[in-house]
Amino acid sequence: MPAFSAYDGTKLAYHVFGEDGPPVICLPGGPMQASAYLGELGGLSAHRRLITLDLRGTGESETPQDPATYRCDRLVDDVEALREHLGLDGMDLLGHSAGTNPAVLYAARHPQRVDRLALITPSPAAAGITVPAQVRLETARLRRDEPWFPEAFAALESITAGRATAGSWEVIAPFWYGSWDAVARAHHAAGAEQRNQEAAAVFGAEGAFDPGSTRAALARFEAPVLVLAGEVDLNSPAPAVAELAGLFPKAELVVQPGAGHFPWLDDPDRFVATAAGFLRRA
Length: 282
Hints:
The protein has helices at 72-86, 100-109, 133-140, 149-160, 168-171, 182-194, 197-203, 211-219, 238-245, 263-266, 268-279, and strands spanning 3-5, 11-17, 23-27, 49-53, 91-96, 114-120, 225-230, 251-256. By secondary structure, the chain is α/β, with parallel strands linked by helices. It has a single domain (3-128, 196-279), classed as Alpha/Beta hydrolase fold, catalytic domain (Rossmann fold), CATH 3.40.50. An 8-stranded mixed β-sheet has the order 1-2-4-3-5-6-7-8, sandwiched between helices. Strand 7 (225-230), helix 9 and strand 8 form a beta-alpha-beta unit. Helix 1 (72-86) crosses helix 2 (100-109) and helix 2 packs across helix 8. The radius of gyration is 18 Å and the shape is globular. The model has no long low-confidence stretch (mean pLDDT 97).
């Protein structure tokens, strides 16, 4: 397994998929989930070489001595160490879900190092964008014809009202996927074992985000940006994703029809066509 040393000596692992084209550095979400759940992003590896990073304390990467280094803004230095390890002057950077936060912070801190930025069903936390409960509920209602909807929606209402029980989050799992089929069920079950809960608790700790300065930096970011939302994704609803896209001077907003939080699983061909088309260099 290829690996490199971070700024504090922590050994970080990464995975390589595909052989064609310049590399795309891919940051997983969770937060702090091993990159295995990304797979080959629905076949994107046939178009570009994917470098999927196991963030510190996840997957094949070492656990750091200092748990405070799990904080999102401090992960930016790990991304920079990976760039240096690969010998890249500039790179295409892709983040998914919570992994879009270190991607955005990296772009804000090192804009000259990012050639293209792809934000897939992004978390907008780094930019200070919040998602109202009503928007999540409205997005969830798009699934009202699904057989699992009544029970899942009741659990979602409990969560948004602050009345969640220990099992509420598991009941709403079908909402994360465009189709709650065998592939989605297996993907969800595997994900539960891939997340570092201690690291996740630190990821967004006080000091992790400075929305004002981040927004100012993004307004000056001149590289092309793809911001992709899933039409039925209640984790990253399209209205919030559109607000994030509006912070960039050169952002393209795409809403993938019928997709949930993992659009490469819901419609691989459509996702790959969109992502590969954006990442293809002129």
